[in-house]
Amino acid sequence: MEQDEFWVLLFILGSVLLNWPILSLVAGGDETSRHFTILVYIVAVWFMIILFAYLFDRWTSN
Amino acid sequence: MINPVLVLAAMVLYLLLLFGVAHYAERKRDQGKSIVSNPYVYALSFSVYATAWAFYGSVGRGATEGLGFLPIYLGPSLVMLLGWTIIRKMITISKEHRLATISDFISFRYGRSYVVGALVAIAILIVMTPYVALQLIAISESLTIISGRYHEILGVRRLIVAVLLGVFAIIFGTRHLDPLERHEGLIAAVAFESVVKLVAFLAAGLYITYGVFGGYGEIVSAIATNPDYSRLLDVDYVSWFSLTVMSSFAILFLPRQFHVMVVENSDEGHLKKVMWLFPLYMLLINLFVPAVAWGGLLLGTEGRADMFMVSIPISQGHELLGLLVFIGGTSAATAMVLVSAVTVGTMMLNDLEMPYIVRKIGKGKDLPSLILTLKRLNILLVLALGYLYSLLVGFPALVDIGLLSFLAACQLAPAALGGLYWKKGCRHGAVAGLVAGFFIWIYTGLLPTLVDSGWVSNDLILNGPFGIALLRPTALFGLQLDVWTHVFFWSILVNFTLYVLFSLIHEPTEEEKALADSFVDIYKICPRIETCPVLPFGESMVIRVGTVDELEGTVARYIGAERAKNVVELNLADLNTTRDGIDARQLFELRDRLEKTLTGSLGPSATRMIVEEEVAVKPVVEVIKETRPIYTLDPGKTYIIPEKAYEVFTDQITHGVEGLCITSSDPDEIRVRWHFTETPIVRLSHEKGRGERYIAPNNLPLLFITIKSFVESSKNSIILLDSLEELIEENASLVPESEVLDFVHALEDLSGKGRTRLLLQTRPEFVNKKLDSDINEARQLIFLLGPLSSYLFKVFAESLLKRLDEPARMVVMRDLAMMMETEKLFSGMRRPDEDVACDPEMGEIDEVPSGSAVKIDASARLSRWEFFAALRRLAKAIREVDPTFDLSDAAKPLMAKYGLNPIELRLAPGTTYVIEEDKPLKSLRVFSDLVGRGVEGLCISRYHPEKLMERYSLSPNRIIWLTQSAGVEPQYRHVETANFPRLSGMISDFLSKADEPLILLEGLGYLITQSNYESVLRFVQSQRDEVSLKKGILIIHIDPLALDTKERHRLESEMEILEVEDEKS
Lengths: 62, 1065
Description:
The structure holds two protein chains of two kinds.
Chain A: H1 3-17, H2 22-26, H3 31-61
Helix pairs in contact in A: 1-3
Chain B: H1 4-30, H2 39-46, H3 52-65, H4 71-79, H5 86-97, H6 102-109, H7 114-147, H8 156-173, H9 184-212, H10 216-225, H11 237-253, H12 255-263, H13 270-286, H14 289-299, H15 308-315, H16 319-361, H17 368-392, H18 395-398, H19 401-410, H20 413-421, H21 427-449, H22 458-463, H23 483-505, H24 510-520, H25 527-530, H26 547-559, H27 561-574, H28 584-602, H29 604-614, E1 638-640, H30 645-653, E2 658-663, H31 667-674, E3 681-684, E4 694-695, H32 700-712, E5 717-721, H33 724-731, H34 737-755, E6 756-760, E7 776-778, H35 781-784, H36 788-801, H37 806-822, H38 840-847, H39 864-881, H40 887-897, E8 911-916, H41 921-932, E9 936-941, H42 945-952, E10 959-962, E11 973-975, H43 980-993, E12 997-1001, H44 1004-1010, H45 1013-1029, E13 1033-1038, H46 1045-1052, E14 1056-1057
Parallel strand pairs in B: 1-6, 2-3, 2-5, 3-4, 5-6, 8-13, 8-14, 9-10, 9-12, 10-11, 12-13
Antiparallel strand pairs in B: 1-7
């Protein structure tokens, strides 16, 4: 996979995961848990994107 | 509460610490040990995105909108993943063209448009003033919280901060005139501040989350179960999406982001680290925002929610933590103010002030100190406006300024992204989109925010202008959305639509097209080649000393003599050349680079003006006479006019044609004599201190650039060059012959593209052809004028000899010298008055070259046929030492360069050729091609002359139509039913009159049908002899299927077969 393609793919993946309708699915649990879920979900996806970007940078640098 | 004096002192000390950091970074840079040129500092500098509005405003937004603050940081984190695609392209383009600001970037893309640049600069100044005010207010508000109200008369504390920041920005942001020179001190300070604000935020977040509360879980549970606050955990998906997109655009096009991303980039590779480091920074700085915002609500902390970061630690008795947060907030604010002041100041200079200065004030003055002073004043102006605005408007009206400025930056997105990826995007589209986008932004975004301050009536917002509900600013056409999504939707929709629509309707100019290509295809072409204009001249000739000096002098007027000299020397070293030895290609490259230096320092619009003023001559129309023009000259043609050149020229320019006169005479005398008033005159003169209207005669590249720029900026033009003869003769000893040759060829080529008429006034003796009228259309000047053909032979000979080793070359050169003395073929290369046949030995001694260069007499002349015959003779000599030598292959590049048909290498005068093919397509193509290149031709054909004129652009007086029709129009020459005596007479007449005649005879089958084979054969045999005697070339077309084998052989025995390649090959 070309570098550009990976970055665009990651961007699209991040944009989809952090927007409607995926967010509405995550926020759709019972009243108490959903508040935690959405926060944890957003932070986790954010962090995973950073992790993937970091690993890809390491991989291409090597 | 902390003693206000102590807090103020701490702030001042912190700012002084920033001075220290910046100074240290600059010193390290001067020592060649940069602490800034690394990906981590580069990534930290991106965090200038997080201003006081982010530091305090995120918490405020979290407390009122819940998770709605997150998209403002998610968008940039996501779009940063496209950094390698978008930001890298922006960096490459900006570095290639030396673009210092986002307004320069956009205006340059759209034809270096002053309108576009000024529009963007004004809009950004309008947006940035309240944004800077917000930063100053944020500092004083947080100061008030930790130390109480103290000396707030006229915002003394804001004033102190503004003054200190102004001094800082001037010292570290304008040390040099070149805004593209990286500001390592400034960036070091910004990076340092990014660390400070992150540390402060994390410290306060950790304390509030785990010190005041029992962790994130406790806070979220409490909020979720509290009916007043539980809505804070809901997500408005429409708003979420629009804020994500809006902030994605903002990080790309906010002026301060452009500065740190593009201008301060030292290595594109650093971007890769930024692509994960910046999202990580965004994640960390937002990690505790919900906890602080909701914790503040749960604690019932007094004051504005925006200030919870400071007020919670203070209310909990942690004054030192409060002070740390205050310093963190100050960091966020000052970083933004510093970078924004520098970038907006540069924008104002480049896009608003410089065009005016160049046009009105700068004429003939040295401007460097004025420009630097202006740049500093601009920075102070930005800060002063921000300070004054902060006094006029309160904090409540400013909290939305952050989002409002993001929305303003979004208006640049269609023009900027379109410019990067869509070649059809043009200036009209950009202007239409920007104007409409900013108008809607003001109407739907800015006006509603001014209601609170009382500047705008609430009635306008509630009922619309004149009570028209459909035009309500916050619900345009009845669309009910949250205010930011509403502004974003309408402004981007209209902006984008108009940009596309106007771009499709309007055809971009040639300059815009070239710039669009250089933007969109930046990776497809080698910049060093692309930036160099198509070079019409050869590559290895030496330009006289002085050209570089002229360029340096122009640049020095704007950036200072010392710096101009340094820039020139650096570029010369980079080009691996010197002032004395620079060749034409390098000179063009140098000119291009110096233009970029000016673009970097003064902006694209001003540079364009300078280039137009200094180099080009502008096309102007004279007062038009009401009479009809006496002479008709076609665009795209070159005319040699020995006597009446000025009369013809004046006739044209007084009838609507834009003229350029190039002369070695006194321009004033010419104006008086011929009554020019407006038409520019360029004088060819070595005069020192010359301005735009004087060009040294041996500075052929500059002369060509001047003519080219004139031609390209005019749609209907004429050029008179009255001293080409002097130019060629004078330059014979000053510049290499090839440069003169290339200049003339390029000039004719420029004219031949149909853009102008070229008039050459020269003595008939200088033309190697008999001139039969007052106005003579000329083709291929390199064979027509003076010694150019022998220059051409020299260029070919040197190129062909280059491939031989030294001993072989010396042998061939000796042969060549001998040939020049003894063979009739080379008679043109001898002086007309010398008779070497009387003393061939002496001639040999004189002409045998002593060095490796081919020696040609300056007054030598070669006709077209002689030139090719000489080449063939030279090739024969080369083959004797190198049997593998192939003339066609070896001469191919030069033949193409000088517009010569390779078939001419095979055509020997006095020869009759036969081309075998079904229909005479190749025959006519070869014939018309040679006639188009200036060969005198006669076409004897079965085709109707009209058809030949239409398909092959042949002149009717050069066509003899073989026909038996009775009613032939009188303008067409024709021969009836195989009237061989008449046909022979016409051919003989043509052979006698033409210098180097070429005859095409097609329709042999028709002649045989009309008479008989034997008669036709006799006719061909007689013509062959005639052509042979008169040194013409006869080409006969034969359809091999129309004759039997015996007949064909008998015919072909009289001729040589000429193989012609297909058109495609």
